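Batch manifest line 458
LIGAND: zinc ion
JOB: complex structure
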Amino acid sequence: MNVQTRLQHGLRSLESFVARYPRALMGSLLALLGGFGVTAFGIAPLVPGSENLPQQQLVQSLGEAELDAQLAALAEHPLGLLRHDSTRPGDSADSLLSRLGAFDPEFAAFLRSDGTARQLLQGRSGKRVALEASPEGRVQSLVARYPVGVAELASTHFNRLLIERDAQGRLESRVELGRYETETRLASGEISSSLFAATDEAKVPDAIAVQLAEMFSGDIDFHRDLRKGDRFSLVFETLIADGEPVSWGEGRLLAAEFINNGRPHQAVWFQSNEVRKGGYYGFDGQSKRRSFLASPMEFSRVSSGFAMRFHPILQRMRAHKGIDYAAPTGTPVRNVGDGVVSFAGRQNGYGNVVIVRHSGGRETLYAHLSRIDVRQGQRIEQGQRIGAVGATGWATGPHLHFEFRVNGVHRDPRQLARASEAVKLPAGALQPFLAQVDMAKTKLQVAASLDIGVSGLH
Ligand SMILES: [Zn+2]
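JOB STATUS: finished
ARTIFACT:
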């Protein structure tokens, strides 16, 4: 069967299923249909001209086998009603259960009193809940999935809280550690107002947008260099908990191309026996990690939107010997390269200012800060937070004034990162690296050809 036939076949079996079963089940069926439709939609544009495409993966992602299995499982189920929702801030046992279509005072009391079950409504909201109830609303089982609190496990595992009835109908609870699966996705977009507006439109999670900015942080100053019409293509991973993509998960950006002002930049994530600590590399094998960052501004949703809107003002401010970044007071400011704090305190026009001494007679200066987070003499690393944007000293409004000096002479800060040293990949790692680059190129090509948004590749 080809893709089209499978799709029709799947839809037909769904239709006949819906006809055979009571209305009560429509909620779960519609959810199922929704997921199915989205997958099929994402795949469709990939089919023509597919000689270089990873076909096997595409076919898998239709998942008709799982669909059949799910339909069969649903059909055999003893009239259970399966509903999904997420916990919300301020949820009580009653409000959650009523949203999930259950009425069960005994279960609600258990949620309030049982030490393990209580975790469902404690701590952060946004836990994904699947609940199974009888047609009368009596809860048969509940499963909730949410992040683990332990940092070392956060990227690989999630919590699975289970509440079930035993043979006597008594409720019991337990928490298990589940292991994430990953799913590869492709996306592409074009910048019109800000990076986040574009990644939102392409349905790319915030965490991936930030990783994109970090990936090219030695090449592109995402606060100053972005241009309308810049384009990006991405290959990234999303985390899947028991078959469902999670909204809280970070996932990893695996490869990207960013065309900035007509100039393409590419990078791929690479990790091997020789390079245990994974990192981003250009397609030429040069590490993306440079001795200096292109921007002292931490990239975030707030600073992203601000940067492009205020660009004309920044141009006018450039008369003096530095670069100004307009940003709301409190926006984090970071150190651009490893060094030692040579000054942290107040100076006339600069207001609260931090000066960092780097190797080779180089110095960077960060002025008008609302807050200083480092002290004089402290050794600090690249990317470390040194304070926050403010309007202290001679500043007309909140902004960061940033200077770069070599042996006391002012230089254009934009030259700083571009001229800085890059690390090269060890020779032994080159073969596997080039193979990975080839794969990344193919996927990026596919991503770039997508008309809109994102596509799933399992
Ligand atoms: Zn200034």
